[in-house]
Amino acid sequence: MNIKNKNCVGYTLIEVIVVVSISVIIILGSTALFLTFMIGNGRINLRQEIKANGNNSLNKIQFMLRNAKSISVCHTDLTSLSFQALDGGITTIENSNDRIASISTSVTPDVIYYLTSNEVTLDNLNFDCYQNQNAQYVDVSFSLAKNNSDNSHDIFEESFSSGIMLRNTSF
Q1: Residue 104 confidence (pLDDT)
Q2: Among 55, 76, 141, 153, which is most exposed with the fewest C-beta within 10 angstroms?
Q3: What is the model's pLDDT at position 52?
């Protein structure tokens, strides 16, 4: 009598195909989840960059205007604003090359100091100036935008505004 030992160790072809198929589905799902996370993280970073640029610029404008002696031309709907700084020089804040620029005669004439980086684009810089017998008040508003480098159709834009009362005005 011939008896064969049937203690074969291994997997059948169907078992291997099922395991490989389930593994591929899990890997594809993980990859899709990872890519979604990375795209979302990139968008968050873009918005943070825009907010940082805008808040930094707005803080610098607020500081300069609060400490200004007077504003040269004070009315609404201005696209640039010139004022006399504490050092006696005239400083102008304006849109230059789609960036917020500060040009001061007291530092170095014709030198432009940019308040926003070249990574963002300025849109709608506007100053509304109000004056009474005792004080000058300025509303500043602007928008910053940036294109998503991964997808040129994604444009992120943030608006910034603030009201500033001049402290050192002399009429």
Answers
A1: 85
A2: 153
A3: 93
Strand order in the sheet with 155-165: 121-131, 136-147, 155-165
Find out whether 72 and 166 touch, Cβ atoms under 8 Å.
no
169: Cβ–Cβ under 8 A, 6 or more apart, which residues? 68, 69, 70, 134, 135, 136
The pTM for the full model equals 0.76
Residue 163: the pLDDT is 93
Q: Which is more confidently placed, 167 or 34?
A: 34
Quick one: residue 9, left, alpha or beta (phi over 0 = left, psi -120 to 50 = alpha)?
Answer: beta
CA distances from 34 to 20, 29, 47, 126, 159 (A): 21, 9, 20, 42, 31
Q: Distance between CA atoms of 92 and 105, rounded to whole angstroms?
A: 9
Beta strands in the chain (DSSP E): 70-71, 81-84, 90-96, 99-104, 112-114, 121-131, 136-147, 155-165
C-alpha torsion sign, points 92, 75, 88, 61: negative
For residue 92, which of 121, 119, 115 has the smallest C-alpha distance?
Answer: 115
Q: Any residues with CB less than 8 A from the CB of 89 and at least 6 apart, and which? A: 104, 105, 106, 107
- 73, 90 in Cβ contact below 8 A? no
